[in-house]
Amino acid sequence: MTTATDTTTTAQPQTITKTVAGKTVTMTPEQAEAFGRELDALKERVIADLGERDVNYIRQIIKAQRGLEVAGRAMLFGGIFPPFWLAGTAMLGLSKILDNMEIGHNIMHGQYDWTGDPALSSKDFEWDTACPADQWRHSHNYMHHTYTNIVGMDRDVGYGILRISEDQKWKPYFLGNPVWAFLLMVLFQYGVALHELETERITAGEISIADKREILEGIWKKTKKQTLKDYVAFPLLAGPFAPWVFAGNMTANLMRNIWSNVIIFCGHFPEDVQEFSIEETKAETRGQWYFRQVLGSANLTGGKLFHILSGNLSFQIEHHLFPDIPAHRHAEIAPDVQEICQRYGIPYNKGPLVKQIATVWRKIFKLALP
Hints:
The structure is a single chain. The chain is mainly α. It has one domain. Helices cover 56% and strands 4% of the residues. It is built from 14 helices and 4 strands. Strands 1-2 form a two-stranded antiparallel sheet. A hairpin with a 2-residue loop joins strand 1 and strand 2. Helix 8 packs across helix 9.
């Protein structure tokens, strides 16, 4: 995996010090080297064990997702009856959540490329959302996972819309922080789709819309396809029941948007998650990159079904450490990661969904002000 350390530099690795929950956390270059070796060894152990169990798991999830989608869409055709509409909408919403979180996100990270199965190829997979897969692979797989929480480089810090770090310079626009956050949540698939467009750079005059013509064409093509499928084709197939199918599809998309937004925000922006400066990471080693991933992420506690529906992004720390390992393995290695972090004095941020999202929204309101 490409990291921020791949760029040529003459600077020397430096000791990194952070204050987390009132406590000082220090990582020297020597400590980082040892820390990195332990995590590399853990990753190699998991990779050596990959096999039929992992393939069977993802194929079962795909089968469940397709079953939910077919059953959900079929029930919506009888949506004039409230129980049918509620059941169909719920099943369709769950299928979209699985497609995005546990299937699409993880396959496109290359977690199953080792199988050689074209259906599980990270380069060829396309998901059921407005964002083109090829653009997401660049903005997320490369930019975000390389420069995680480096203010000024990781555009997921605020998504170019929000002020989510005190290191982001305040301007009057951010008084609307809670409003922008709410709109991003309910329209999340479109926010993700526009991410690669870099609208904040366009409005700042750094680049022009013409520079993003190819990106814009890709967004328009994918968004048009998704809109026609959910809001034209399936409603028309339902004939006189079209309004109920239309409403069911819209509600299912809303379910997926809100859920994925909440899970992602809880993994990146809760209290005590750290941001880093470009200067701090100039000569970053592999071990220091691991250190940044741990401090720049947070986990969610919950049961097995909760973890599946979150795409196992409830183990955001492990995902940021090892994004190309099948995500269902993260639950197994989380205790090992936590134990290693504990020995090196590195905080391991985890908590229930309600607690984590509460701290996220507290931060959103707080940072709306100068």
